Amino acid sequence: MRKIKAVLFDLDGTLLPMDQDLFVKTYFKKLALKMAPLGYEPEKLIQAVWGGTSAMVQNDGSASNEDVFWNFFGGVFGERALEDIPVFRSFYEVEFQEARTVCGFNPQAARSVRLCRELGLRTILATNPLFPAVATESRMAWAGVSPADFEYYTTYENSVHCKPNPDYYRDILAHCSLTPQECLMVGNDVDEDMGTLDLGMQVFLLTDCLINRREADVSLYPNGGFPELQEHIRRLV
């Protein structure tokens, strides 16, 4: 096995245990309750958020994910939606925090990040940049980690691609002056995270909250829980 210099960690379902469907359902319900008094019909609101999310996933790199999302959302609801951006931000600061109740917590997540740093490895949070920084930093806190634990973390403000587009990972590598061969990608989603193998990264599939839409053979990847991950990392230093 090649020695590595950096570990890229996914967040949702990796460092932060969750049932993704339950989390999204809870998040959308709280968002709809927040925005209904301002005249946003819940079903149309949720469809617009999904549409904006899809637009970010298809981003060709010509604009930030943030701009792509609001361009789509504004196209649905008009200019008034852009005037309400501060209300959406306040949602992430307040009501969104309640979604923590449907997430788990595993102290081994923070220990795994800390282990990397103790071993002299660079740590990067490679979470799909579909959320603003305030929401990403909140979910980091729920997982027991903080921005200080990572040299870089992706948000919709600082990113122009999304998973599973390999350009998302290429952007991180360029930003951090790393080659794929110097990196280990740790994630729970076979499609979104393990594709980095094709770029030349090493991978580890965390199976605690596994997402395997195509029922791929997970034995193709080093895999397991946090104890296995920590042992795997030690072997790569």
Automatic annotation (TrEMBL):
Keywords assigned by UniProt, alphabetized: Hydrolase
Top-level taxon in the UniProt lineage: Bacteria
InterPro entries: HAD-like_sf, HAD-SF_hydro_IA, HAD_sf, S-2-haloacid_dehalogenase
Keyword Hydrolase on entry: yes
Signal peptide: none
KW Secreted (keyword) present: no
GO MF annotation terms: hydrolase activity
Coiled-coil parts of chain: none
SUPFAM superfamilies reported in the protein's UniProt record: HAD-like
PANTHER family, sorted: HALOACID DEHALOGENASE, TYPE II (AFU_ORTHOLOGUE AFUA_2G07750)-RELATED, HYDROLASE, HALOACID DELAHOGENASE-RELATED
Protein name per its UniProtKB record: HAD family hydrolase
Organism: Mordavella massiliensis
